[in-house]
Write a structure and sequence with these properties.
three-stranded mixed beta sheet; 3 strands; 11% strand
Length: 118
């Protein structure tokens, strides 16, 4: 559910103060933050924020397209290693003892089945 427009976007106060001081001094430096819940404001554009993902800080350069999104969206917390392919699954089943394409498992007889044409 989205936040009420009446309340406005949420930005942690400590993060907002750091951004305001950097804008006043016209400096650009990396700011470490744990505030993944803060919304990206237009004042943050051009800054680099190191957002904590639970293990390490991920540097995120803020662009205009990111305004309105949350900081946590740009520092993933999980590493995707890919889906297993069907080829790997077939190889595992075929190589397993007692199962797979060749096997003397308890299946139907090799001849015609009960409902097939002879």
């Amino acid at each position: 559910m989205a936040r009420s427009l009446k309340k406005g976007p949420f930005i942690d106060v400590h993060l907002q103060k750091k951004i305001d001081t950097m804008n006043a001094a016209n400096e650009r430096k990396v700011v470490k933050t744990w505030s993944r819940r803060s919304t990206i404001a237009p004042e943050m554009v051009g800054h680099t924020l190191a957002v904590y993902n639970g293990r390490k800080f991920i540097p995120v350069y803020i662009t205009e397209n990111m305004v309105g999104h949350k900081l946590g969206e740009f520092s993933p917390t999980r590493t995707f290693k890919g889906h297993s392919s069907k080829v790997e699954k077939v190889a595992k089943v075929a190589g397993a003892p007692g199962g797979g394409a060749q096997g003397g498992g308890g299946g139907a007889p090799a001849g015609g089945g009960a409902g097939g044409k002879s």
